[in-house]
Amino acid sequence: MPGDHRRIRGPEESQPPQLYAAEEDEAPDPRDPSRLRPVYARAGLLSQAKGSAYLEAGGTKVLCAVSGPRQVEGGERGGGPAGAGGEAPAALRGRLLCDFRRAPFAGRRRRAPQGGGEERELALALQEALEPAVRLGRYPRAQLEVSALLLEDGGSALAAALTAAALALADAGIEMYDLVVGCGLSRAPGPAPTWLLDPTRLEEERAAAGLTVALMPVLNQVAGLLGSGEGGPTESWVEAVRMGLEGCQRLYPVLQQCLVRAARRRGAATPS
Amino acid sequence: MTRAGARSARADDVRARGSMASVSLSEAEKVYIVHGVQEDLRVDGRGCEDYRCVEVETDVVSNTSGSARVQLGHTDILVGVKAEMGTPKLEKPNEGYLEFFVDCSANATPEFEGRGGDELGTEIANTLYRIFSNKSSVDLQSLCISPREHCWVLYVDVLLLECGGNLFDAISIAVKAALFNTRIPRVRVLEDEEGSKDIELSDDPYDCIRLSVENVPCIVTLCKIGYRHVVDATLQEEACSLASVLVSVTSQGVVTCMRKVGKGSLDPESIFEMMETSKRVGKVLHTSLHSILHKEESLGPKRQKVGFLG
């Protein structure tokens, strides 16, 4: 007989059984603190977006799409001197709108996509890191939309999203000063903590502190920085930032190759 | 200088970062500020590492468990903390927690009218969550009443009354002062023979638990202007700077959060210099704040309250 829902009432709230399961105390394997996971990057894969990129690093999978430049109404009235190199005056510069979304199946537990909170904070971090690299003065009264979708979170998600967003912008042909490369770090708790470069999801969950750095490799300028937790004294954070910047430099040749391949593919596809 | 002279004929509407209050600065004013900072001399005569005069007053709102008001130059912040009972979070059954809410009032600047200030409010609230996200800032276990069932939730509400530059620093000082002033009523859990629990409030209204704010961090914002960085920038100085670094330090020099804000990029060496400065400045800020809070408390309940029109 099917359950009688009116007389046999189920519990008001239920939780998945994994929550009460004994903690699998498998400590993450000891590894070289400055190893970078192998990265697979591909640009120009979405047909509907102006530019797109897909990045996979270990278990982290990010897909990023760029659309625009689109004319935006109600811009401020022009005025003021023009910038260097034929750029628009400060009041007419283009805008960059970033959106970061986490797929509901990205983490271990299903999370319904909420509007605010963590996703807004990461979208703001994306915008602050990409703005120094994009020549917004060349797109007056226009708006560029960058949307990053995290398909699976395997550690250092924000760093992967930053790198994918920069690749997508380059693939869209937006004028940039330099690419932006992101790198994640985490500090394990314990008596002699060290900073680990490019942490996996397990290492990030057990971490006492986390940090994401974004670097423009050729100009050697830090475009973005976001970190929090019990990282210890300033010297320890300085060491972490140095490690992160070095990791970004090591990642750069892979991204260059990815863009060259994408350009070749585009050239071969349109024989004219 | 001739190029700058030709440009100053038209006022250049330079916007301070993001959705904050905008200020109109001409090219000449901008050059004046930048050149002055290179010589360690700011417009109001301060050095690069000096704060403006800070006025802190606690216990300004009577309906809260704790409150504080901070005035830093033209920036005016009011924080109220209310302690309410709630259920602990699933992952941390033995701890209470803090909830932050930041409201940018339309009095601060006309741009915050309606929903204009929501974006800035969420940004500040997210930063506050981040700086309190580690175990050592506030002793959350003391907020637990009975594990998995009841705990104290501290709702920290920040009200931005006037925006005069350097919001994050002022807000963190106000939050620390309000947490110092918070008085949480002491409760006991009584268990019956049948096992049902009852929560009993003590009879004495002055019997409270106080939070230890020794390890609560304060935010130090360093704005990069030209080749040097300044602490506690006014709105005009913020308009001249393209990038800032926000560091949250405790009184022991432990950093709990680090963030780069703004549209520009920074040299790695200047970031390292800024972090050293933030440690120095943070220590001085914490010692003077501690001494002032203890001095205010020692004046006792008979002290003269200044309030809003003093």
TrEMBL record, chain A:
GO molecular function, one term: RNA binding
Nucleus recorded as keyword: yes
Domain Exoribonuclease phosphorolytic: 36-175
An example Gene Ontology biological process: U4 snRNA 3'-end processing
Gene3D superfamilies: GHMP Kinase, N-terminal domain
Keyword list, A-Z: Cytoplasm, Exosome, Nucleus, RNA-binding, rRNA processing
A GO CC term attached to the entry: cytoplasmic exosome (RNase complex)
Domain of life (superkingdom): Eukaryota
Record PANTHER family: EXOSOME COMPLEX COMPONENT (PTHR11953), EXOSOME COMPLEX COMPONENT MTR3 (PTHR11953:SF2)
Family membership: Belongs to the RNase PH family.
Protein name: Exosome complex component MTR3
Species this protein is from: Myotis myotis (Greater mouse-eared bat)
From TrEMBL, chain B:
GO molecular function, one term: mRNA 3'-UTR AU-rich region binding
Cell compartment(s), UniProt: Cytoplasm; Nucleus, Nucleolus
Keyword flag Acetylation: yes
Family (UniProt): Belongs to the RNase PH family.
Quaternary structure and interacting proteins, as annotated: Component of the RNA exosome core complex (Exo-9), composed of EXOSC1, EXOSC2, EXOSC3, EXOSC4, EXOSC5, EXOSC6, EXOSC7, EXOSC8 and EXOSC9; within the complex interacts with EXOSC2 and EXOSC4. The catalytically inactive RNA exosome core complex (Exo-9) associates with the catalytic subunit EXOSC10/RRP6. Exo-9 may associate with DIS3 to form the nucleolar exosome complex, or DIS3L to form the cytoplasmic exosome complex. Exo-9 is formed by a hexameric base ring consisting of the heterodimers EXOSC4-EXOSC9, EXOSC5-EXOSC8 and EXOSC6-EXOSC7, and a cap ring consisting of EXOSC1, EXOSC2 and EXOSC3.
Domain Exoribonuclease phosphorolytic: 51-185, 215-280
The protein's name in its UniProt record: Exosome component 7
InterPro entries from the UniProt entry: ExoRNase_PH_dom1, ExoRNase_PH_dom2, ExoRNase_PH_dom2_sf, Exosome_comp_Rrp42_subfam, PNPase/RNase_PH_dom_sf, Ribosomal_Su5_D2-typ_SF
UniProt GO cellular component terms: cytoplasmic exosome (RNase complex); nuclear exosome (RNase complex); nucleolus
Sorted UniProt keywords: Acetylation, Cytoplasm, Exosome, Nucleus, RNA-binding, rRNA processing
GO annotation, biological process: exonucleolytic trimming to generate mature 3'-end of 5.8S rRNA from tricistronic rRNA transcript (SSU-rRNA, 5.8S rRNA, LSU-rRNA); nuclear mRNA surveillance; nuclear polyadenylation-dependent rRNA catabolic process; rRNA catabolic process; TRAMP-dependent tRNA surveillance pathway; U1 snRNA 3'-end processing; U4 snRNA 3'-end processing; U5 snRNA 3'-end processing
